[in-house]
Design brief:
GO terms for molecular function: carbohydrate binding. Pfam families: Lectin_C (PF00059). This protein has a domain of 126 residues: Mannose-Binding Protein A, Chain A, CATH 3.10.100. Helices cover 45% and strands 23% of the residues. It has 4 helices and 8 strands; from the N terminus they run H-H-E-E-H-E-H-E-E-E-E-E. Strands 1, 2, 3, 4, 5, 6, 7 and 8 form an 8-stranded mixed beta sheet that branches. Strand 6 and strand 7 form a beta hairpin. The N terminus is likely disordered.
């Protein structure tokens, strides 16, 4: 009989222990609630940082737009320090943009006029068009095919040589394009998308 009583007590103790451990205590709920609150605060802080960074980018873009011109939901800025094509593109990227890529005649003419006004006496400016990867297949700096061209046919452009793979917009040739040696030093035009 003592054995039976001992077994019953053990089963009751195990059941009670299991029941107590399986239900979350109030302290567990409080810790859990605190964890949820901390996660919520962290996500709010993360969103605020993203917003602050976005505002910083917009402020920087406005500064660029004030120094350059605004057209077609983009800002353009001429850089008067001559660089090789790749250095020019890297500089534009470092400033939050890319080399400018005219998508139609209107954009091309605005770039030409802006370049003429902002850098009087300058002839050629790098733009974001090249056929470096495959000769004759011109792409923009994001490797997307270019559909608008404004070649200077009086100079038999593009020449089609493998040495000349980067495109310059010529102010002297009324905004016509020429493919040039990428290692040539030229001024350039950066493009910034307005969000």
């Amino acid at each position: 009989m003592a054995r039976l009583a001992l077994n019953v007590v053990l089963v009751l103790c195990c059941s009670l222990l299991h029941f107590c451990c399986s239900r979350p205590s109030r302290t567990r709920k409080a810790v859990s609630a605190r964890g949820v609150e901390e996660d919520d605060v962290k996500s709010q802080l993360e969103r605020l940082w993203q917003e602050v960074n976005s505002l910083k980018e917009m402020q920087a873009l406005q500064t660029v737009c004030l120094r350059g011109i605004k057209a077609h939901k983009k800002c353009y800025l001429t850089i008067e320090e001559p660089k090789h094509y790749h250095e020019a593109n890297e500089d534009c990227i470092a400033q939050g943009g890319t080399l400018a890529t005219p998508r139609d005649a209107t954009e091309n003419n605005e770039l030409r006029d802006y370049a003429r006004r902002s850098a009087p006496g300058s002839r050629d400016f790098w733009i974001g068009v090249a056929d470096i990867v495959k000769e004759g297949q011109y792409v923009d700096v994001n490797s997307m095919p270019v559909s608008y061209f404004n070649w200077d046919r009086s100079r038999k452009q593009p020449t089609g040589t493998k040495r000349e793979s980067c495109v310059a917009l010529s102010v002297a040739a009324q905004g016509r394009w020429a493919d040039e040696v990428c290692r040539s030093l030229k001024k350039y035009i950066c493009e910034y998308i307005i969000p």
